C-alpha cells in the first residue's frame, strides 16, 4: 500500500511523471533475471539415481551419495559426464534386499556395520603426515522402506548400522569404521553432515583429531555428535538446544510456491528437520550451524562441543551459554561449506542461490544465484577453488507432492569459482 501512495503524491505534476506517460510505448519494465555472481558451469548430469551429498577429491574425482530405498547403491563415483558407479565397490554397498529388518513387528534399518546402508553425506580431508587423503562416509543406517499400505516410511536405526567410515583415497580401501553406542546415536537419530579437525592439541581429545557430526532427527532430538578419532569414543552436545531445533510450522517457498509436507496418505504437515548445515572456521575454533527450517545462523566455540562431561558436569550448560545468535540470513538454509578466507557458504533453496556469512562484519551476503539451482543439496569446495553443488529438485520429490514424483532428469553437478582466491580449507588437516 505504501508504495502506491507515496509515488502518487511525489510524482503529481512532476517532469518524471510526464516523461513516463508520453513515451509509454517504449517502456521496458525491469525484471528479475534470476542470476548474479560468477559463471555457473554444468559439470555432471545424473540420469539415474537422485543425489544428495557430494565431495570432490584433489585428483578431480567426484563422489556422490544417494539415500535409499530402492537404489542399487548408496555411494558412487562419477565416471564420465553422464554416469556414476558404486564406490568403493558394489559389494560394500548392501543390496536393497538387505537394508532393513523387522523385530517384534517393528521395522528397523540393517545393523550391518560393514556394508553401506543409506549414505547421506561425504567429506574429504586432505593428506597429512599420518593420514592419506580420506573420503569420510556418513551412513545413517536408516533406509526408506514401504509400510503395510505401501507408502514410504523410515525405520529406526539399530546399533551398528549408523556409522562413520574412513576410505583411503590412495587405494580405495576402508581403513577405519566408527559406530555409536545407543545413548549417543538414538534409534530416531539421523546422521546428516560431518566436519573434521586433526590438530593433536585439541582439548577433550586423545590427540588424533575429532569428527563433528550432525544429528538432524526429524523425530525431534537433534544435536551434535562428536567422535574422538583416536579412541573411537563418541558423545552428544547441544541436544535439543533451541539453536538446533526446527522452526515451528515453517512454510518455505520454492520457485515462488509455498511448500508444506504432503506425504501420501498422511495429513498435510511441515518439514521437520532440525540442525542441518555446519561449517568450522579455518582455525577450528568456532562451529557455525543452522537448522534447515529456520532463517537463523548460530555458532558455538568448538571447545564447548569437545568438553567431557566426566570432567565437568556443567559442560552442557556452558555450551548452551556460549551459543551465539548471528541473526537472520534471509531464508531457510540447507548444507554449508567454507573456504580459506573464512567465509561460511550457505545453500539457500528458497532463492536458487548460495549466500555467505562474513565473520569480518557479521553480515550475510549474496554469492551466486541461478535458475538452475533448484534445491542445492550438498556442496564441496575442491582444491581448484570451485564450489561444487548437487542439484536434485527435492521440492518435486514424492514426499512433498502427495506421492507424485515431479522431478525431471537430469540432476546436475554445478560449480562456481570462489571469490578472492578462496580455496578448500586445509588448515585443519595439517597435523
Ligand atoms: C522514447 O524512449 C526511447 C528510448 O529511451 C527514445 O529513444 C525515444 O527518443 C523516446 N521518444 C520520445 C518521443 O521521447
Ligand atoms: C541480472 O541482474 C543482476 C542484478 O540483479 C545483474 O548483476 C546481472 O548482470 C544481470 N544479468 C544479466 C545476464 O543481465
Ligand atoms: C559413460 O559411462 C557409461 C557407463 O560406463 C557408458 O555407458 C557411457 O557410454 C559413457 N558415456 C560417455 C559419453 O562416455
Ligand atoms: C524390508 O522392508 C520391506 C518393505 O519395504 C518389507 O517388505 C520387508 O519384509 C522388510 N525386510 C525385512 C527383513 O524385514
Ligand atoms: C555385512 O555387509 C558386508 C559387506 O557388504 C557383507 O560382506 C557381510 O556379509 C554382511 N554381514 C552380515 C551379517 O550380513
Ligand atoms: C593408503 O594407501 C596407500 C597406498 O596404497 C598406503 O601406502 C597407505 O598406507 C594407506 N593408508 C592407510 C591408512 O590405509
Ligand atoms: C590399501 O592400503 C592398506 C594399508 O597399506 C592395505 O592394508 C590395503 O590392503 C591396501 N588396499 C589395496 C586394495 O591395495
Ligand atoms: C594447537 O596447535 C596449533 C597449531 O597446530 C596452534 O595454532 C594452536 O595455538 C594450538 N592450540 C593450543 C591450545 O595450544
Ligand atoms: C572423558 O573423561 C573420562 C575421565 O577422564 C575418560 O575416561 C573418558 O574416556 C572421556 N570420554 C571421552 C568421550 O573422551
Ligand atoms: C563458556 O564456556 C566456558 C568453558 O568453555 C565457561 O568457562 C564459560 O563460563 C562459558 N560462558 C558462559 C557465559 O557461561
UniProtKB/TrEMBL annotation:
GO terms for cellular component: extracellular region. Belongs to the major royal jelly protein family. It is found in: Secreted. It holds the Pfam family MRJP. SUPFAM superfamilies: NHL repeat. Keywords: Secreted, Signal. Residues 1-17 form the signal peptide. It comes from Zasmidium cellare ATCC 36951. It comes from the Eukaryota. This is Major royal jelly protein. PANTHER family: PROTEIN YELLOW-LIKE PROTEIN, PROTEIN YELLOW-RELATED.
